[in-house]
Amino acid sequence: MKKILILLLVVSVYSCQSPNGAVTTNDERSEIIKTLFKNVSEENIDYLKELFSDDMTFVDARNNSKDKAGFIAGVEGLFEMFDEISFEEVDGDAIGSEIETTVYENGIIWTNVWNTFSATGKYTGQKVSFPFHLSYKWDGLKIIKEVQFFDNAVFDKELNAMQAAKNVSEKLVILLELKVTKGNTAEDVQILVKKLNDFVRANEPNTYDYTYFISENGKRVFLVEKYLTSADMVLHAKNFEGGPNFAPFMKMFEIDKFIIAGNATKELKDLLKAYPIEYRTAVGGWIY
Hints:
Blueprint: H1 2-17, E1 21-24, H2 28-41, H3 45-51, E2 52-59, E3 65-66, H4 68-81, E4 82-87, E5 98-104, E6 109-121, E7 127-139, E8 142-149, H5 153-166, E9 172-180, H6 186-203, E10 207-214, E11 220-227, H7 230-242, H8 246-252, E12 253-262, H9 266-271, E13 277-280
Parallel strand pairs: 2-8, 12-13
Antiparallel strand pairs: 1-5, 2-3, 4-6, 5-6, 6-7, 7-8, 9-11, 9-12, 10-11
């Protein structure tokens, strides 16, 4: 027992003398990040272009990566969507919002930020506020990498409103009114729909809504599909026609009405020209 206690004491002393990294809140890089956020609130894109390395990598909360050009375009998009951008003050007391820089023994330097984003949406008119966490990796006094850790829902909502106002959204809504063919029951429909859902989930990550609604008498079904882009629906159509679900679907249902709402591309229209589709474009509202 005594040997174990001595070993723990030695490890503890060694750990205190040889930390993995030193954390500060009033160093040069932390001050640079304070200036960075001040320039974001003032919508000064030139400061960001200078501060971020030309070789930078940006990783968002959904694990999407961008280079510097993509990152700068994203910040400019932020300025396009929001007014009155602001952040909380930081003072190094580790109580509320904070900026701190860690210098590791191997020479790698990261600055971490905990703060709150507040702004007013230009297209929704809504005031928003949410906490966020960002990490910046340094190459000298240039930022070589930024990683985001927060929910993008606020940005998605404002982006939807902006795209709707400009009628430039690539999202599509598909509406199908289906008749259940004679001899098939609601239970039969449910079994087939389960297979269809499983296939779409496994093979089409950008089919973000795929829902069947059945009438009380079990004779009619309403299908709602949503796609991020026309290309995503092209993938779905090719999977459907060339996959295992086409024959069972056409045996189970008769298509009564087929509507594609949104800005469908020529490629999609050419691919589906054999179907009796009614195309409709947006005149207001937005697509989630």
